[in-house]
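Exercise 4. Each item below gives a protein and its sequence. For each, produce the structure-token representation.

Item: OB domain-containing protein (marine metagenome).
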Amino acid sequence: MLKDISCGALRSQDIGKSVTLAGWVHRRRDHGNLIFIDLRDRDGLVQVVFNPELAEKAHVIAQLLRNEWVIQVSGEVLARPEGTVNEDMLSGAVEVYASELTVLNQSLTPP
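Answer:
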């Protein structure tokens, strides 16, 4: 199965669930030990967190990701830490901690 829920459909009631998502890398932020990806599909965005202590292989692959690459991610939905909720996103109260990452298609960086 490519995905079992849409990125934009994740909400607080999904906390604790294991999910598989697929979509485009909208934005990538490397904060040293943690890598954050805003994953986009037709229904919206969700933040995915790659932590080398939880999934070293996925973290190594996440270092290579670029905008508009198509990926599949499996992981657990968790509440964002206090003070990091993004009110501008419908899924802004949650994030997915990745356990697996597969690159489905690479893309040249858009102009």
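Check: The chain is about 5% helix and 45% strand.
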